[in-house]
WRKY domain-containing protein
Amino acid sequence: MNISQNPSPNYPIFSDENFINPFMDNFDFTDLIFDVNEGGNNNGFIPEETSSPISIVSSETFTGESGGSGSGITTSSKKEPTFGCKSRGSKDGETKEMGHRVAFRTRSKIDVMDDGYKWRKYGKKSVKNNTNKRNYYKCSNEGCTVKKRVERDGEDAAYVITTYDGVHNHESPSHVYYNDMVLSYDHDNWNQHSLLQAIQQISPPY
DNA sequence: CGGCTTTGACCAGCGC
DNA sequence: GCGCTGGTCAAAGCCG
């Protein structure tokens, strides 16, 4: 379980054929929960569509201090996600815009999708309604406060739920690969764009 | 030796 | 007010 430790600087998930590719048979984007910055409610909500490799089940903008706070994600997913977000130091009700939250539910044999960023694990916890442990990661890049949670779906361990909190304040070299992928992958094109939109929420173009 | 993971403890929010 | 739960911290150990 060391996949967050990307041995290659070349961000293999979308570019290295030796790595798990999201569009291979054993890896499906089943749900995509992404923040579309619509002011904190579900204006961007699109109901789950099980016929598609990617389903957008929820979106949210949240406010608060570093690490996230305030509202939890609302979702139409069959399984109640545990995205409630609490943070020390946010009790005074600050409403400072903090960032975005993006969540994927994917069918994958691996626990941690390598998304091109370098992550450092800082916690692991068993959560309610899930026999599997949830892993907590921070972006290793200096000054970047983006966090990521990774857990296996409690109802179907074949699925991995990955949640990103915040926006990277540094460049992601993988950005190029995502764009290349879209350009070279036409069928189900809207799905690629959905994924791209989500990823680009947390990887601002530099 | 440096960077990382592991893991138990601690803290804060929420529901009852 | 109390207990439960999720999120984070930090020390210790591991690994390249």
In short: The first strand of chain A starts at residue 28 and ends at 34.
